[in-house]
Amino acid sequence: MEPRLVERKEMRVLGIRARTRNANEINLKSAKIPGLWNRFYDENIKSKITHRMDPDVILAVYNSYENDYLGEYDLLIGAQVSELEAIPGLSSQIILPSKYLVFKAKGQMPRAVMTAWAGIWDYFSSGKASHRRAYTADFEWYHAAKPSEVDIFVSVQ
Questions:
Q1: Could you report the per-residue pLDDT of 48-60, keeping only the tens digit for each?
Q2: Running DSSP on this structure, what letter comes out for residue 9?
Q3: Domain count of the fold of the chain
Q4: Which of 8, 116, 103, 15 is CA-nearest to residue 58?
Q5: CA distances from 50 to 54, 118, 153 (A)
Q6: Looking at residue 16, what is its pLDDT?
Q7: What is the CATH number of the domain that holds 147?
């Protein structure tokens, strides 16, 4: 898994949010991420998001890290918007300009994404990484035209 380095401008994202930690996501009783995805689709959250930049893209934004990948973090599932608008029940997030290493997850979802994240954690903890994680905001980029591929953007210093 060899990532590519990119720079991204500021992004505004609107969606639904939950706070969790990776240790909780291993157990179905304490996992919040599957329920957040179910809510996103069951309540058709995407249709409630105004000013969407690309109707075919869904973002899953990881931010407000407690410390590193072992601590708590927020996950916001939503869409990039051209302007933030207060919509009841939705949360917003501004992702500041940053450098990212981009990893690709391919295969059956969500297993491919989970496997990719395990590889990402290993990549950064192995000492072979060319950059250090910034733990500011990371995100998964889901595009409707490629349902079995996800780009994972990991913020780096």
A1: 999 999 999 999 9
A2: -
A3: 1
A4: 15
A5: 11, 34, 24
A6: 98
A7: 3.20.80.10
